């Protein structure tokens, strides 16, 4: 009898221990949201606060993890060994600008530098620190330098097609002063920057009130209130205090991408970063080229203009950028997914697809629709002159979906 009681007591203690352990942990995870403070990291000129996207992980973990791998997220980063694609290795760390000037790229304890050295001189002409990297490196990168609060673009860039340091596209082949970086440049490459120059052509920015990369809040707006609300109301599964894409018109959805993907634009408003998803883009800026002339649209940076001219767009009422792109995922090279997107419409249409191209060739390419209908086209603007190679330009996927007669490559 006594033995049994002992048994029961022991088991009782074990169960109690296990229950309180789980209860404690449950409580801990229940209260997890209290541990991530909602501290604003920057404030929009409209008064709304940005918070760190790490605060989204708690409720949108998969999206955050996927998004961190995208070109958007990596388009504007602090300079580091990991983010700078150009090489600092001996033998690969120079760029000959002309007969007299050679750039050297140096790694020091204090950071990474561009140093032009003039022939027969021992000390470099200047030593410029690379503070910020613009570009995920898919096609290239450009480097920015802080001088107090003034932001400048440095002369040497990196070009992915040649995997080498280059003189920035458009720069003269002699030493040129660093170019001031204007807010419009940052508007397309990062989430938020505050211009403190007093006018739009100044290059002074608040160095702390800056959100790197094209992050969640670039497309969804500053969301401090959303996070605050859902932390306080964990059982409300209906999104609050957030712009809803699903309630936007087709044009509003397109405009949210066209802000940065419709080529260079002329602004009608003073403030960069004032456009927010849901707004009508033409109230903020208009294209500074003839929209109706396809010749003028470059494949680089103008996906909107080209798509708009395609039959898939004009003859359907739903097609927008997100029909084919999941803005949270890195999808480059994922042809199977893209084929499915084409087929999502073309397999449901009365008219069966009739690609009279060489049937064997089509089969060999496992029906890679875009190879033939959205071919790679050389950019007219993203190109450089290289002494050994002549002109080298980047290939960009055209968004003018159509029938091309050119030989498939
Ligand atoms: C405490 C939980 C919580 C946090 C933290 C949170 N969200 Fe949400 N969010 C929700 C809930 C709940 C929904 C509604 C269900 C859903 O769509 O997943 C939602 C929905 C959304 C939607 C979809 C809106 C729609 O219906 O179109 C967006 C966009 C969004 N959140 C963005 C963010 C961003 C950006 C962050 C981080 C800065 C964030 N959320 C942080 C709980 C949270
Ligand atoms: C704030 C400006 C901005 C907005 C808004 C924006 N993009 Fe981008 N997008 C960029 C920039 C800049 C790049 C190039 C990033 C890089 O490689 O550094 C890019 C790259 C891309 C790429 C190529 C990704 C890759 O793997 O190389 C796709 C696809 C894309 N954007 C689609 C979209 C879609 C769809 C939307 C709307 C939902 C959108 N973008 C909204 C600026 C923007
Ligand atoms: C109107 C929006 C816009 C402006 C302004 C803009 N860019 Fe871009 N930029 C883009 C888009 C969109 C892409 C990529 C998509 C493409 O190639 O079509 C891109 C690509 C790049 C790339 C190549 C990125 C990569 O990884 O392939 C670099 C580098 C770059 N831009 C630097 C700059 C710099 C520096 C400035 C300002 C001095 C600037 N851009 C101004 C929209 C813009
Ligand atoms: C380039 C713009 C862009 C960026 C950056 C972006 N989103 Fe979105 N997001 C969208 C669009 C567009 C939709 C609507 C997609 C649709 O309707 O097909 C969306 C939908 C959502 C939704 C609701 C639908 C779903 O997929 O669950 C959530 C939640 C969300 N985004 C959260 C985030 C979070 C968190 C981040 C940052 C890690 C983020 N987004 C970054 C453009 C963006
Ligand atoms: C009909 C499908 C479709 C639509 C709609 C579409 N895209 Fe794309 N997009 C693609 C495909 C396919 C690629 C090539 C992806 C690859 O190379 O892996 C691509 C590539 C891109 C790239 C990278 C270009 C390059 O070569 O570096 C950008 C940027 C982009 N899309 C932006 C947009 C924007 C912005 C919109 C809306 C205006 C849009 N796309 C609409 C299918 C589409
Ligand atoms: C939202 C639905 C939709 C999607 C997605 C779509 N298309 Fe289309 N596409 C159409 C419609 C509608 C037409 C016009 C058909 C007609 O002329 O009756 C069309 C026409 C075409 C044409 C003929 C163009 C011409 O100039 O004659 C080609 C080629 C084509 N699509 C290829 C594609 C490819 C490749 C993709 C995927 C990258 C794609 N489409 C995605 C709806 C779509
Ligand atoms: C090897 C190149 C090639 C591939 C791959 C290819 N097509 Fe085509 N496609 C063509 C050619 C060439 C035509 C023009 C046919 C003609 O009019 O003579 C065409 C015509 C079309 C048309 C318009 C003509 C019609 O019958 O309506 C559509 C739509 C189309 N293709 C969709 C697709 C889709 C979707 C895929 C992927 C599943 C695809 N194509 C793959 C070469 C190709």
UniProtKB/TrEMBL annotation:
Residue intervals passing through the bilayer: 6-24
Domain of life: Bacteria
Keyword match Lipoprotein: no
Domain Cytochrome c-552/4: 182-221
Keywords: Membrane, Signal, Transmembrane, Transmembrane helix
InterPro entries, per the entry: Cyt_c-552/4, Multihaem_cyt_sf, Multiheme_Cytochr_ET
Keyword Iron-sulfur: no
The protein's name: Multiheme c-type cytochrome
Organism this protein belongs to: Aquimarina rubra
């Amino acid at each position: 009898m006594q033995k049994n009681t002992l048994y029961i007591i022991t088991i009782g203690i074990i169960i109690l221990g296990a229950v309180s352990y789980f209860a404690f942990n449950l409580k801990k995870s229940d209260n997890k949201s209290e541990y991530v403070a909602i501290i604003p990291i920057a404030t929009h000129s409209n008064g709304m606060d940005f918070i760190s996207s790490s605060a989204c992980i708690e409720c949108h973990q998969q999206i955050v993890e996927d998004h961190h791998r995208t070109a958007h997220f990596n388009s504007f980063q602090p300079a580091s060994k990991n983010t700078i694609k150009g090489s600092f290795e001996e033998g690969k760390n120079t760029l000959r600008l002309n007969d007299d000037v050679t750039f050297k790229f140096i790694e020091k304890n204090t950071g990474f530098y561009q140093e032009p050295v003039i022939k027969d001189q021992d000390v470099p002409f200047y030593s410029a620190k690379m503070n910020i990297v613009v570009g995920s490196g898919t096609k290239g990168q450009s480097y920015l330098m802080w001088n107090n609060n003034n932001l400048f673009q440095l002369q040497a860039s990196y070009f992915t097609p040649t995997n080498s340091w280059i003189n920035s596209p458009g720069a003269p082949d002699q030493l040129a002063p660093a170019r001031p970086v204007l807010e419009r440049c940052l508007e397309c490459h990062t989430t938020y920057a505050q211009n403190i120059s007093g006018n739009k052509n100044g290059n002074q920015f608040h160095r702390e009130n800056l959100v790197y990369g094209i992050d969640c809040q670039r497309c969804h707006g500053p969301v401090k209130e959303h996070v605050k609300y859902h932390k306080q109301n964990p059982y409300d599964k209906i999104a609050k205090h957030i712009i809803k894409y699903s309630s936007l018109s087709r044009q509003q959805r397109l405009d949210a991408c066209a802000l940065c993907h419709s080529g260079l634009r002329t602004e009608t408003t003073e403030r960069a970063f004032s456009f927010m998803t849901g707004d009508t883009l033409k109230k903020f800026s208009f294209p500074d080229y003839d929209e109706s002339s396809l010749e003028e649209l470059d494949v680089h940076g103008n996906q909107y203009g080209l798509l708009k001219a395609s039959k898939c767009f004009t003859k359907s009422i739903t097609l927008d950028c997100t029909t084919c792109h999941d803005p949270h995922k890195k999808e480059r090279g994922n042809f199977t997914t893209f084929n499915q997107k084409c087929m999502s419409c073309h397999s449901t249409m009365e008219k069966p697809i009739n690609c009279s191209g060489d049937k064997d060739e089509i089969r060999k390419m496992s029906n890679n629709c875009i190879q033939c209908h959205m071919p790679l086209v050389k950019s007219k603007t993203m190109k450089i002159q290289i002494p050994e190679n002549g002109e080298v330009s980047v290939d960009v996927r055209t968004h003018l979906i159509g029938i091309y007669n050119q030989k498939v490559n």
